[in-house]
Amino acid sequence: MRRIGFILFTVVVLATLVKLGLWQMSRAQEKQTLSSALKYRSEQRYYSVASLPVDPRWYSLALHGEFDHGKTVLLDNQIYRGRPGYHVLYPFLADGSWVLVNLGWIAAPAYRDQIPVLPEYHGELKLAGIIAPPSHLMELKSELLGPDWPLRVQNLHLSQLSEIMGLPLMPWILQIDPEHPVALQQNWTPVVMGPQKHYAYATQWFLMAVAIIGLAVWWLRRSKV
User: Fold this and answer.
1) 142, 130 contact by CB (below 8 A)
2) pTM summary value
């Protein structure tokens, strides 16, 4: 019974390690595909929301329109060089379409109840950037968004923001071109972890599986003695 129990335990552990390794391999392939798609699509530029393909993610987009500074969104918990801050997002009206534009990072004031001094850009502007899905962080509880502006949020739930703003926002974010004159400090990256790290993690899980097999074989041979 002892040997059977040990064998069953070893099989379960091996299956778990191999599953984790395969999962990391699949994540690496996803990141590789994303990186390739990002490189290819970012080189393709569109000049209106109406001309975008069904899946517009990672394409470059240039627009001409105006910001609505009365409905500013501050994405909380954004760190740059160890300093807390926000990503500043303004709704932008271009050819009848409302797009939420991420201008970049701004430092948070010393006290939590204070709001940073926000830049404003009035009149018609030409913007360019990359279309990206809104990133989501883990939330311990759902946010209750109040009526006061600017809105300070933990995540960008665009359907909820669209309802609060009373604007038909596009279901994606325009990450402004870092070289644009109105761009703030840029610390947004489309891929947080490259495929190489996932391959390294997969290798670790597979090596642990090999080590478990070796230990199991050694114990089974020793228990026969």
Assistant:
1) no
2) 0.71
